[in-house]
Design a protein that fits this description.
Length: 259
């Protein structure tokens, strides 16, 4: 009888230990799932971004973060300790003014970032949570792949400022998957090579056909400036349907929209 009781006790203890083992808390989310990806905002407390004004955030592996609030570019710092995410209170940004709805969402987005205390990555979806575990916003991973894409130039640096192409001129670039660049600056065809990866971009010498276009006035100057702007580019980012290239000094080189 005593032996039977002892056996029963051992079995019960084994079941208890197994139960405790199975109740081990899940590991906190890995920072590796968060870092090095540009995240495109899909929902902020039930509100979608304004069309044509993508909102993004990128968590770099050195503790820096940066992105766009829909109107202004911003930067800052963050820390991850276990499953806790802390974004620095200071988020310096540019000082552009945009439509009221864009500015309102941008302000809410900046507040959500600094309120974030946790995150979860599920495949290609990021959720930022507040201290109570409530969702602040959801994001989709944004591909930074340039290969096999075509873009229309919306502005370029003419050596003194970012300016728009002349009206009724076609300015388009195609990035082939073999590293070939082709397009037009408004008059001539452009042909060259590019290398892009990890947010960095460089161009080989960009050749053009030799047509002379007299109208509209300034078209040849525009084309030369576009080629120079491309060759000055050092970094790039894709945010929604927008592509932006910047110089090594972080000045705008070329801005484009998906064609």
């Amino acid at each position: 009888m005593a032996k039977a009781l002892w056996t029963t006790a051992v079995v019960a203890m084994s079941l208890l230990l197994a139960s405790c083992a199975s109740a081990t808390p899940a590991a906190p989310p890995s920072s590796g799932d968060l870092v090095g990806v540009t995240w495109l905002l899909e929902d902020l407390a039930g509100e979608a971004p304004v069309d044509g004004s993508p909102v993004t955030v990128h968590f770099a592996d050195d503790g820096a973060l940066f992105g766009s609030g829909g109107c202004n570019r911003f930067s800052g710092t963050y820390e991850i300790d276990g499953g806790t995410l802390t974004v620095g209170d200071a988020l310096p940004s540019t000082m552009m003014a945009c439509a009221d709805d864009v500015m309102a969402l941008e302000s809410s987005f900046f507040t959500a970032l600094t309120d974030a205390r946790g995150f979860a990555v599920d495949g290609e979806t990021l959720t930022l949570n507040d201290e109570g575990g409530e969702a602040l916003g959801t994001f989709a991973a944004q591909s930074q792949e340039l290969a096999d894409t075509t873009w229309a130039i919306t502005s370029y640096n003419d050596g003194s400022a970012a300016v728009s192409p002349l009206a009724d001129t076609e300015t388009e670039l195609t990035f082939a998957d073999d590293g070939t660049l082709s397009g037009t600056g408004g008059c001539n065809r452009l042909l060259g090579s590019y290398t892009a990866g990890d947010g960095e971009i460089s161009f080989g010498t960009i050749a053009t056909t030799q047509m002379a276009c007299m109208t509209p006035e300034g078209l040849m100057d525009q084309e030369a400036a576009i080629v120079a702007a491309l060759e000055s580019a050092a970094t790039y980012s894709i945010e929604g349907d927008m592509l932006e290239m910047r110089t090594a000094d972080d000045a705008i080189a070329v801005q484009l929209t998906r064609a």
